Amino acid sequence: MNRFFLDLHALQTVPPSNLNRDDTGAPKTAVYGGTPRARVSSQAWKRAIRTYFRDQHLLDESELGVRTKKIVELLADRIHGLDTSLAGAEALRIADQTVQATGLKTEVPKRKADQAKDGEPEPAPEAKYLVFLSARQLDGLARLAVEGAGDIAGFFRDKKNKARAKEIADSRHSVDIALFGRMVADVADIGVDAAVQVAHAISVHRAETEADYFTAVDDENRDEETGAGMIGTVDFNSATLYRYAALGIHQLSANLGQGLREDEPRTEPVRRAVEAFVHSFISSLPTGKINTFGHHTLPDAVIVTLRTSRPVSFVSAFEDPVRSESSGHVREACERLAAYVPDIERAYGEGDAAPTWVLRVGPNTQKLAGLGTEADSLGALVTAVGQAVADRLDKPA
Amino acid sequence: MSTSPTSVLALLLAGPLQAWGAASRFSRRTTESAPTKSGVIGLLAAAAGIARDDDAALAVLAALRFGVRIDQPGTRIRDFHKAMHPVTGKTMPLTERFYLADAVFVAAVEGDHALLERLDAALRSPVYPPFLGRRSCPPATRVDLGLHRDAVLEDVLRTVAWQASPWYRRRHHHPETGQLTVLREKQPGEDTPADTLCDQPLSYSPAQRRHALRSVVTDRVRPPRESAHHDPFDAFSEDDDL
């Protein structure tokens, strides 16, 4: 099939903040080009992206999934929703058998089993691993369970029914599983490899962690010597971050499958997923200590490229750290990219054959204007990228 | 022992972060100080689009002789990682992940020329994009560093120019006196003292990932400096006040 990748790059400035901290409470760091940098882990930003497109309803609820061990309880709820006569322990038993028919192992956690000895109701079995299932998969399994509810064990002894359970668990993956992957350690055939690769964000400049010493006054303290109610320190840094992600459109397409509805183009699920991802990548923000620092920023500049060869990170442009101490880092970072990108595209890229879009804010980003088609809003960028992806998918291989 | 000429494919592995685990289990994800054979063969297999459970196709790649040169060792950083349960909001077990920051390696595989030619092409147009040991570590540069026809692994790792970053070269002013460490597999029939590492890939199948022990010989080499590199502004480096 056609191979192609979507590269997303963003320059984003955050004021004093602590988006992603280590076990000492300090912001995460890395060394690059021999100098210390601020770092935000890929996991933290991926979580922010997932949370964003759920919270902003960028996709229909039925297109999304949950990651949980409590799959038996979730399924029992849905079974009860379909057939109210199936409830409580009975619904749990049917759900458990159905989950096991997909090939997943379940067990009652030992700790809970011990608690239950004191006359409490039997706790629900749980999957041994976190399982990532879409709402549509859960609905499909619930319908299958209700169909076989009369004699659930006998129902799944029939190989055909067992195969149906496996098939439901292996199709109609939710968009976030298709994007970010799923690891189910003991059932290889329902594992999904992530289509997206998110790099750790690092500052384009040298960044040191600083400590804010604070005291808090006790408002109700009427003593003459008031003193402080508490004292402490909060670590923080501020940074202009280079953020990068690569999305394998062909992988995403394979993970998602084709359109499920007759009345929409077959490329629709991929287009919707790409649009949701691009939108969320740009707009999302890890919320670590956000109420302390209020670091609600958006990228100053975004570059998106659709390639048929290999993904290309531009992080090397910042290996030599940006040094402009007095006028911020955005202008020089943009100048670096404006010089670096045409250079690397000429040497290894596809040159003008790779459609590129630029979304940028303010005069500091002026130099990036020539790198691609300028989008005047996030919405316009998302639509243009989604449309280009759908057009490419429609082209014969 | 085969006498037919073999070729060598060289790879450049450089990026802000890399992580090459050989013995990671449970919640402590460590990294070796150099790329593992499993990690590099996995990168090639991914580029070529070999499925995770295709052990037969993997065996062809895993039979390539492997070596790696440490051009810029980097520093080890520890990443503390917390996951929250998306439904209950409870904290999942804490994990520690180790990364190599700021490292540069030259890896090489030796074997059949036609196979290496296919892999070289795959690196330039991969099915699954390459990453440096962990998916969140994309390479900062191109990965393909040249296919050497009728070559021997040891020679390539001795003659490929030193790939360290300009800032690193500036700080290590006398690389000619210094040598680089090469970790390579034994030649057939060679009798050299060797370490063992459990990174010979047998299967990447998620259900049963398997590795075998492999012998690793440590050499010291003195590669040429990149002659073409001449930056007049090196003399005005601001590095000293960093």
UniProtKB/TrEMBL annotation, chain A:
The UniProt entry, under InterPro entries, shows:
CRISPR-assoc_prot_CT1975
Domain of life of the organism encoding this protein: Bacteria
Q: Which Pfam families match?
A: Cas_CT1975
Q: What is this protein called?
A: Type I-E CRISPR-associated protein Cas7/Cse4/CasC
Q: Which organism is it from?
A: Streptomyces griseoviridis
TrEMBL record, chain B:
Ranges annotated as biased composition (Basic and acidic residues): 217-233
Keywords from UniProt, A to Z, are: Antiviral defense, Signal
- Superkingdom: Bacteria
* CDD domains xref list: Cas5_I-E
Classification via InterPro entries: CRISPR-assoc_prot_Cas5, CRISPR-assoc_prot_Cas5_N, CRISPR-assoc_prot_CasD
Q: One GO MF term, please?
A: RNA binding
User: Could you provide one GO biological process annotation from this protein's UniProt record?
Assistant: maintenance of CRISPR repeat elements
What Gene3D superfamilies does its record include? 3.30.70.2660
Region spans: Disordered: 188-242
Signal peptide coordinates? 1-21
Specify the protein name.
Answer: Type I-E CRISPR-associated protein Cas5/CasD
Q: Which organism is it from?
A: Streptomyces griseoviridis
- What is the gene name? cas5e
